[in-house]
Amino acid sequence: MKSEAEQFEKVPTTIYASAGEASRVLAVEVASLIRKKQAESKHAVLGLATGSTPVPFYRELIRLHREEGLSFQNVLTFNLDEYFGLEPTHRESYFRFMREQLFDHVDLPSSQIHIPPGTVSRDRVFEACQEYEAEIERAGGIDLQILGIGRTGHIGFNEPGSSMESRTRMITLDGITREDAARDFQGIENVPRFALTMGVGTIMNARRIVLMAWGENKADIVRQAVEGEVTDAISASFLQKHANAQFLLDAGASQSLTRVRYPWLVGTATWDRSLIRRAVTWLSAKLKKPVLKLLDEDYNEHGMSDLLTEHGPAYQLNIRIFNELQHTITGWPGGKPQEDDRYRPERALPFPKRSLVIAPEPSDELRAMGGTIDRLVEQGHSVDVLFLTSGNLGVSDDAAEHFADVLKELAATRSSSAWKEPVRYAGQLLDDLEAKGPFGEDNQSLRGIKGLLRRGEARHALRATGLDESRIHFLDLPFYENGRYRRFHPQEDDQEALREALTKFRPHQIYMTGNASDPSSVGGVCFSIFRQVMEKVAKRKWRQDCRVWLYRSNEKPLGVYEIDMAVPMSPDQLKHKVKAVSLYATEELSTGQRDRAVARYYDQLGLANYEAIEAFRAW
């Protein structure tokens, strides 16, 4: 039975505080299924997914195997999909992914593993897909199918347009799906255009289906799949028609569900300060009215009569929220000295402040807060930028090849024997690129040069904001330098390196991102390390005098109701920021659109009309 709060949800949905907690619950269910089947001398048939989403779940299964003796001897597995044309040994093949993330760490017999054959010849694809379906049938069908959800709402590789009756087949990958995989493949040109995938119909035949989703970036598509109409434009929406399907979400992925975002529409709301601001800004946007023009009847007609009873009338409530929003706006992100700071986001003293901007990867900082860095420097604060990783995983082979070619060209114009070593180095770099090819894995030498290229760009870009080069630091956390996307294993030495850096800087304010990211992404891993370190230094004197401001880089933008500090930019300041971001030449970046969108929203609410605004949330 659904609760009143869940009345708009068309498939059972459970929200957990974290991906780890949800993964532990699901792992217990899977372990129970396996043991039940063992007692019956039967196979447990599991349908498995790849990508970053199931990684915490697989790690919990490994823990249960190692620490609690869970055996996989009676398990049959069927993976959802595989890229077409990738050898099983390719670093981004799903076969290799499953080996590294699960199969090599448990006692699952290789003969009981089934993954769509990505290397089958094109003329045998249809036959191979039919055989995959037959294998599932011979196994008695899938007992429990694990799913993630893509940005287009796809399950498996069932891109928009996939029918509910579709079976295992070859499919052309959607442009957005290929864009999302571009970093894994070091450039979209290396991402396969085709994949083999279980069809929606194949998935729907499973006796139970569990879809997992983590992070705020998945929140909007999750809401469409759970609360929207069933449509082949969002294949995950077909799960509404399954008798035993369930969505498992962390707090971030649940943010767009009606019961979380608009609780006053589905029952009695507890009107705290945050929810009041959310409700008023929502009503203003919905009615296209400035906040100060909202009427009592507007509130009453949209399920908020109790809000007026507790905090009204509308006139007073409107003024209160308008003032709160107005007080988030500041041109002084480090605080304005010798001014009354009661209504300013950041305190006036101490001045100048030691401001530390932390970026998981280079470019995160400028895309999100280039204008703010500019202001902090201009206003005399001591600003340092700390990159937690080198960013070498985001640098394409083309960029490294271009560097080697330029180095050889430069040497060719010089007659000095001193250029012999650079020429040899450039030649070795080109040889390494050719040897690995577009689908090979970078050796340490290649990763090193790519990291140096990224460092150079970061210094160049930040100098454009007025930051001195001595204020730019790279921590090169081991989890990243020794790992790959979706295959990160943070350790104690990552925390220790960051703890030492924070102790050295003793900042008065920190700017950090990643709290809304997928927990297995670079940003998510970095924020987890940051959070653990901040807990360890909680009693340090500098920590008690330090404020943390959260920004968004690749993650879903902050809603206006979430913003605690809004730093406006003039047209010239925005152009300056865009130019600085463009200096990151090894990665295609865009900026400005999000900042303009925030400014438009403030304007629509009846506040000042700025060209652009950078947004922050107090942690």
Quick tags:
619 residues, alpha/beta, Rossmann fold, 3 domains, seven-stranded mixed beta sheet, 22 helices
Q: How are the strands of the largest sheet arranged?
A: 1-10-9-6-2-3-5
Shape label: globular
Q: Look at the structure and give the CATH class of the largest domain.
A: Alpha Beta
The CATH level-2 architecture of the largest domain is identified as 3-Layer(aba) Sandwich
How many beta-strand runs? 17
The largest sheet is: 7 strands, parallel
| Uncertain residue ranges | none
> Which percent range fits the helix content?
40-55%
Structural class: alpha/beta
Secondary structure topology:
Blueprint: E1 13-15, H1 19-39, E2 44-48, H2 55-68, E3 75-79, E4 81-83, H3 94-101, E5 113-114, H4 125-138, E6 144-147, E7 169-172, H5 175-181, E8 194-197, H6 200-204, E9 208-213, H7 219-227, E10 245-249, H8 258-261, H9 273-287, H10 296-300, H11 305-311, H12 314-328, E11 354-359, H13 364-378, E12 382-387, H14 397-412, H15 420-436, H16 444-463, E13 472-474, H17 478-481, H18 492-505, E14 509-512, H19 522-536, H20 541-544, E15 547-550, E16 565-569, H21 571-582, H22 593-604, E17 612-618
Parallel strand pairs: 1-10, 2-3, 2-6, 3-5, 6-9, 9-10, 11-12, 11-14, 12-13, 14-15
Antiparallel strand pairs: 4-8, 7-8, 15-17, 16-17
Helix pairs in contact: 1-2, 13-21, 14-15, 16-21, 18-19
